[in-house]
Structures are given as structure tokens and as C-alpha cells.
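Session log. Operator J.P. requested a structure for one protein chain; no other inputs attached. Running the standard single-chain path with C-alpha cell output.
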Amino acid sequence: MAGISTFNHAARIVALVTPRLPADAALRHQLAASPGMGTREKGAISRAVFAYFRWVRWCEPKDSLQKQLADAWALHERFTADPKAIKPEALAARAVPAWLRDELEVTPEFLRQIQREPALWLRTRPGTAIKLADTLSNCLPSGAGLRPALPDALRYSGPLDLFRTPEFHAGVFEIQDLASQLVGLACAPKPGETWWDACAGDGGKTLHLADQMQNKGLIWATDRSARRLDTLKRRGARAKLFNYRTAAWDGGPKPPTKTKFDGILVDAPCSGVGTWQRNPHARWTTTPEDVRELAAAQRSLLEHVVGSLKVGGRLMYAICTLTRSETVAVAEAFTVAHPELEAWPVFGNVAGVGDPGPGSATPATRAPTTLTLWPQDLNANGMFLAAWRRKQ
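Structure written below.
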């Protein structure tokens, strides 16, 4: 149970939070500046800060931050013990901003899920999940019945600081949300192919693609942030994956290379509604105007990469948001604008899913070409995926 010291530390961090300094960044900065603080204490402070932003609309603004944090934590414990203790009407009114109802169906199941603490998912190197689970303990495989299956995914619920484990430093696993792992699986790159991860960021999906390609072929990993690409290089070295090339790209009309690709992944910047369980502060800083601007940027990114796709090549659009403006609206408009493409099953190249096999020229009509992954179904982030294949 969180105590007075935890709430005092958490209050100092919450006081620093602004739209320009999100809660997760404030936590990182402040906890990094406290090297003498133990892992368990840091974890308690982090949980208290995030609980505050989940339950802030139940708190009395006139109270001290310490009192608000304590009240939020009490609600968190009450809800954890019995999710039905908080009525759906109260969740609908207070857990998310009102504008969200114009962008997606806000169900009681969705609201209950984003009020829970998020699961911690690991992506293990191929074939190592069972051994790693035995080593770390407190691990469970990905959800039973999940299709397609993710045999390399584990959910960790133990006390270890995973970043300090020998297995992490040996590149045996990455911390990666289950929904993000499904994006990499949907891409299904083959060894020897050439891919472009257009918005690579810190490289989590780039490295998943590289693993599936068995370090063969080539991935172009681009991002506007040189710092994030440097992080990718460090992660790649730790995992001993080297079949990628990094390059700066600002998302503009000039691609980083004249190469034509077997596959392109656009994991576009978005409003991040699908991450509101993990990042509750973003609920109160994201606006409808943000959604409109991001939808335009996403459409622009797709337009700027499509010319780099080979005939027969596949384009995957993935975003960790759930708003209609950024998901189905973008996908539908892009499909209409590009008759040279055909909508393709999201998991159309994944073996054993009942979709087209390698070399198939016709998509399976029963397989979805767009897919929304809901947090309450995965116990993970929400995600939207759409896929196309260049037919001419």
C-alpha cells in the first residue's frame, strides 16, 4: 500500500507536469535524479502518479496534491478489488474527455480496462520464451486463443527490474506491448526481403521485423529524430541484429532512398488513445484539433511512401489510437485515392491463419483488411491496422 512518503514524492512530480512535460517524462527525469532510491520505492511512486491521472476527476481540486493522490489511490484499490464498485455512468462521465464519444464507441468494458494498471509484455527472441519464463518466473504466455498466436510473447508480473537482468543485457528479450508485437507479426517479412519501417522511432518494430527475417535481407529504418535512431542502434547491437540501415527522414515527399520495397510499415504518429491505460495523463492533454491535424499527417505519410512499393509489395498502416478520424477514415480515403492498390488481409501473409499463402494473387474475402485491436480484448494497448498490396 502506498504511504505518506510515496504521496509526497508523487506530489512533487505531479506539480511539474504540464502539457509540454508529460507525466511519464517528469517521472523519468525525477526518478533518474534519485539514484539512492530503490526499485520498489520508484515503482510505488510511478503507480501513484499514474493512478492520480486515471482518477483525477474524482478528486477535489481544492485539496492538496498529497490528499488528491491519496484519494486517487484509495479509488484505485477499491476498483482493483471490485471493478463494478465504480458505476459505468461515473466512468463514462469522468474517466475520459467528453469529445472522445464523437470519435469511438466508449463502452463500459473499454472504460474499465483503461482504469486498470497495464500489463507488462515481453517479446522474446524466437524459440526462447519457455526458457526465459523459467528463468524470470512470474511469466505467462500471450492470451489463450489469440489468433494469430504469438509464441514469443510473455506477460511478466514479478518484482524484478527487468532492465538490470543479465537476459535483457544479452538481448534475449525486449519490453514490447502485445499490440505492437501483433503489428510486427502482421507484416510477416521473409528472410531476404527489403522493407521500410518509415516511422521507426526507438526501433521496437524494426527489431521484430529483423528477427523474423533471421538477420537476412534489409530494413530501412527512418525517423525524424536522430536520438531515437541512436537508441535503435543500441538495441540492435544488444540483440545482435544488423540487417537494417538507419536514415533521417522528415516524412516529406522525398523518400530516403530510391529502393523499391517488398513491404513498408507506416507506424504513424497519432493521438495515442490506445495507450491511455498506460499513459493516462494524455487523456487530459489530447484535443479534437490534435486528432484532425494528426489524421492529415497520417494521410500525408501514406501518400509519401506508396510510390516506393514494388508491384506485389505490401503496405501496412498501424497506429496506437482508436479514433475514427485516424483509423477507418484515413484507410478508406487512401483506398479510394489509389486504384493501383488492393485492400489486403491484415494477417494475409501469416502462415496458419487461413489467409492467402505465399504467392497468392487474391486476398481471402473472409479475412479483414482493417482491424481494430481493443485494449479490453488484448489486455494491452489499443491498435488499428490496415493493409494494402500493390497490384500494378
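Operator note: The CA atoms of residues 79 and 86 lie 7 Å apart.
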